Amino acid sequence: MQKKRERLLTETELELMCIVWRLGQATVREVRENLPEGRDITYTSVAKILSILEEKGALGSKKGEKTYLYYPRIAKEDYESRALRHVTQGLFDGNPGSLVMRLLDGTDLSREDLAEIRKTIEARLDP
Amino acid sequence: MQKKRERLLTETELELMCIVWRLGQATVREVRENLPEGRDITYTSVAKILSILEEKGALGSKKGEKTYLYYPRIAKEDYESRALRHVTQGLFDGNPGSLVMRLLDGTDLSREDLAEIRKTIEARLDP
DNA sequence: AGATGTCTACGAAAACTTTCGTAGATCTCC
DNA sequence: GGAGATCTACGAAAGTTTTCGTAGACATCT
Known about the structure:
- 2 copies of one chain form a homodimer.
- Chain A is mainly α.
- Chain A folds into 2 domains: 11-72, Arc Repressor Mutant, subunit A (Orthogonal Bundle); 76-125, no CATH class.
- The first copy, chain A, has 6 helices and 2 strands, in the order αααββααα.
- The first copy, chain A, has a two-stranded antiparallel ribbon with strand order 1-2.
- The longest helix of chain A is centred in the middle third of the chain and has 16 residues, at 76-91.
- Chains A and B meet through α1, α4, α5 and α6 of A and α1, α4, α5 and α6 of B.
- Chain A binds a DNA duplex through residues 10-13, 27-29, 41-45, 47-49, 51-52, 66-68.
């Protein structure tokens, strides 16, 4: 048996998934209306991706007033962690510390961000 | 014209790219030999992906003793930053602080990791 | 020179992702 | 009840990624 590698959502899937996370639940129409400016894909294309997301277990659906409502079956936080593990494995040798180091090096973090992160770390170091 | 979104390397491309980064430079054969246990793809498949990576500008190649040597044209560090920006944008609302928070929440970081990260942050806060 | 092995190029099959159109179902408003 | 709009299901075209096979080039050994 082939070890099924943990696949992340694809670009477009994630894009739509984020909209559902943000709205809490949404119809195809609503997802479509919440696409960013200039991003236009047809109603049916959006419907298709949502149904794929349902197939993959990321979304559920239920009958709403007149149309289906899609809602997340996985928490955004969980997916975030999963994505970070994936990146950590694939690019940072499984070492999350290296990831943070790279982020600190390659990104402009505000003093506020830095201070907040430090506070969180200290809370963890001194329980 | 369609705004070309910044595409990251695909899974397999990244997998091979990491091997070249690790080895510094490598022949097709060497890359193949450095695949993880149980991952077998044919010589020609590896060669194909490497040539795609060259096409995309991620690798260069030169004549070695008897066979081509591939070497990185982009630094791993740069790619890491790029990947993190991509994740930050796509999943954390453009906010790198949120990313770190999620990593701290969703991952078991060792005390050493935490301490090291804190040190880096403090160095940045008090220059 | 000829057989054998290794290497690169090329193309294309297979798999997956993204996008769309059509057709049938359902609702809504005269 | 019928015209028109909206919704879902289905399938498939178009695009991309992954994988492989074949063929020609080049070397090596005998």
